[in-house]
Specification:
single chain, 349 residues, alpha/beta, six-stranded parallel beta sheet, six-stranded mixed beta sheet, 15 helices, 12 strands
Length: 349
């Protein structure tokens, strides 16, 4: 006996006409309700939604786009090499926050990676094609082409991180961003090291073409304005970059007694070098990181004292700001948000 679930007549998808008939309304009314249009009385809206649930109707995306002029998709653009995005837990946590908030708004995440200048042509063509309702862009660099591209095509955008340094530029009032208090968090980290009696405090900085790294350098110098250049080494936000920077500092300032590191991955590399050189942490050199990536900070040897920023929460905030703009009847953008940081005490300092 044939399986009735394989009968094409029984397996056919419900149509909008069937929804309208079940709800007792016209096809035009059913279409407006299903596709997000306005001007339908609430009792009729309730009838149509009941019919949709009873029949298992799945709306046609193209039709919805025509009615709402929305694609239901948001692009997340990250200007970093692929290996960094998939090896640094910072990115996975931020994308997780973004994805969860987009799900709550029934919107799809489209991930666009920019590994080099050649990728901007591909990203430009995609954004110019109107495939997404807006863009969430983070890990920008000071010479980034992306802000100019987004301005040119007038794509609604929210930045993860303050877009320029030291001034956000003339576009800042129109383009909101979500960032943590990088400078304040760095100050708190260095003040903690000073409170421990450390006097030769070095800094492993992030890349100088990224605003977060520059803000953290500024926070370090706020507390230690007389720190010489030999106490600052520049890394690249990777474990190996932190290891190289720590080796350089130990070669030039073997008497240092503390180091503030601009992110947890570099701090893990610094801790490895200190162990290899027989330097005790925290007895000889105290170490403080930044980010509080639990998978890195808690697994470090010893566990890492670090500055916590709510990375997942910032991803959610980026989506909320974008949705606030997309759903607004005015041209005004919401205000940018700076989230607080918190020093998390563990064994390294």
């Amino acid at each position: 006996m044939p399986d009735p679930t394989l009968d094409p007549k029984r397996a056919a998808r419900p149509t909008l006409e069937a929804v309208a008939a079940r709800a007792g309304v016209s096809r035009a009314t059913a279409s407006r309700v299903v596709n997000g249009g306005a001007g339908v009385r609430q009792p009729l809206v309730d009838q149509v939604r009941r019919a949709v649930d009873e029949l298992g109707y799945i709306p046609n995306h193209a039709a919805r786009t025509l009615v709402t002029r929305r694609n239901g998709a948001v692009a997340v653009v990250i200007d970093e090499p692929e290996f960094r995005i998939f090896s640094d837990p910072f990115f996975s946590r931020q994308i997780r926050g973004i994805s969860r908030e987009l799900n709550a708004h029934d919107a799809q995440l489209v991930l666009l990676l920019v590994e080099g200048s050649g990728d901007f042509d591909r990203v430009t063509r995609y954004l110019a094609g109107g495939h997404v309702d807006g863009v969430l862009a983070f890990s920008l660099h000071t010479d980034d082409e992306l802000p100019a591209i987004l301005r040119r095509f007038q794509v609604p955008t929210v930045y993860g991180g303050r877009p320029d340094h030291p001034a956000a530029g003339e576009d800042a009032p129109q383009v909101p961003y979500v960032d943590c208090d990088n400078r304040g968090g760095a100050r708190e980290a260095v003040r903690h090291l000073v409170s421990l009696g450390r006097r030769r405090i070095a800094h492993i900085a992030g890349p100088r073409d990224q605003v977060s790294a520059l803000d953290r350098i500024d926070g370090y110098h706020d507390v230690l304005p007389d720190a010489g250049r030999e106490l600052v080494a520049v890394g690249d936000f990777t474990t190996e970059g932190g290891a190289r920077a720590m080796e350089s500092l130990l070669d030039t300032r073997p008497d240092l007694d503390a180091v503030f590191v601009s992110n947890d991955l570099m701090a893990s590399g610094a801790l490895r070098v200190l162990r290899e050189r027989g330097v005790r942490v925290p007895e000889d050199v105290a170490v403080v990181g930044f980010d509080d990536m639990a998978s890195v900070a808690e697994a470090a040897v010893p566990p890492l004292t670090t500055v916590r920023q709510d990375v997942e929460g910032m991803g959610r905030l980026m989506v909320r700001l974008l949705m606030e703009r997309l759903n607004s009847d005015t041209a005004a953008w919401p205000e940018s948000v700076i989230t607080p940081t918190e020093l998390v005490h563990r064994a390294s300092a």
